[in-house]
Amino acid sequence: MNPTTGQLGRFVIPSTKTLKYLDTRIISFGYVLAKDSGLGVGRGTVRTDKTDFSPRIGIAYRLGTKSVIRGGYGIYYPTSAAQGIRDPIATNPFNQGITKKGTTTPIDGWPDANNHGISPITGGKISSGTGGTPAVNVVPFGLHQPRIHQYNATFEREIGWGSAVRFSYLGSTMHGLIAGKDLNELNLVTCPLGQTS
Question: Cα–Cα distance between 135 and 179 in angstroms, integer?
Answer without folding.
Answer: 18
